[in-house]
Amino acid sequence: MDPQAINLNETIQKLNSNVLEVLSERGKSIFFPKLGILSQSAQAKGKKINATIGEAIEDDGFSMHLSEFDHLINLPLGSVYPYAPSFGKKELRDSWKEFIYQKNPSLGTTILSSTIVTSGLTHGISMAGYLFVDEGDTVVIPDLFWENYSLIFENAYKGQIVTFPLFKNGGFNVEGFSETLDGIDGKIVMLLNFPNNPTGYTPLVSEIGLIVEVIQKQADLGKKVVVFIDDAYFGLVYESNVYTESIFTQLCNLSENVLAVKLDGATKEDYVWGFRVGFMTYGVKNGTPELYEALENKTAGAVRGNISNVSHLSQSLLHKAYSSAQYESDKKEKFETLNSRYQSIIEVLKDPKYLEYFVALPFNSGYFMCIELKETLNAEAIRKILLDKYSTGVIVFGNLIRIAFSAVPKSKIPELIENIYSACKDYSDQK
User: According to CATH, what is the number of the domain 328-430?
Assistant: First the structure.
């Protein structure tokens, strides 16, 4: 093992040995290389002649670039063309960390790590898997989940996904969650995604404490727990009884046995899907800047060894937008558009005739909702009827149909639901 990795591990062992125990073997061996090329390049910065960096530089000292881009990008050259640090652009990292405190006021003065920039939230989840999931490790998630989790945790890192039923009696299945964790010996890795994809469900204020108690119970038993928190759709909550902060706020100061890993990003929160900018932030009870710095170095090392660094242009554009006077009002306007679509689908589904063929699963937030078809129906067959006869596209999982109401104009939502009803009727009539 490289001496730089050993030094980081020794720091983590000294400050919280539980964190070292939940690291994967890859996580233990990774480090951010502060010697070699990066160190020598840093030492040469500002020198009269600098032949260290792998970039093409014009004779005037600015980045070499094609002139076609000059009228397309209104940013300083230094914020566009050079490599960004593997940790991410510092100004953006600082802004995002400040946002975390602003959006989650119950954090108070809790000490967190600095954020590390990832290439979208998917990359952040992948880096979490890299750092914490070994072959054969169990990863606990709800039974209704985004398929990329399988690609990351099972295909890429050879972990084993174990699920629990997300819902019971119209709400979060606390009992099933607890029973699943009770069945795991040793290290526990879990992922919580609220608002959930595909269901669009976020726990209620009355449920969040119960979920935290389940995790606390495992920590009190001496189990080492790492919780990945997929906050992709954070902030898009449409009902007053829903918990509006991230569950990260409840977990990052819960126990020295519980490491909370917040995975979020501008992708959905700021409506910039193609920018591919996400963030990783750590929290653990009694976490210190020195402990977090060691984790940050490991994370940046994983990023460097995976993609080198995240788009400098995307990071600079976001940082500029965050300082704009229009930023907050623009976000509020987009939220209201999504909220109006949510309210519309709630109203449309009140028609009892739809119960003949389907029922809506609980939803209260995010981009999506799901309807569960009657057992006599075939979701895939109905999806094809919708495409061929009604020019309507949806996603199916088993006997569920996922609707991305985020992508449908409010005026077309009644037609969407009516089309699904009609397709169900068509299928039933054909049988």
Answer: 3.90.1150.10
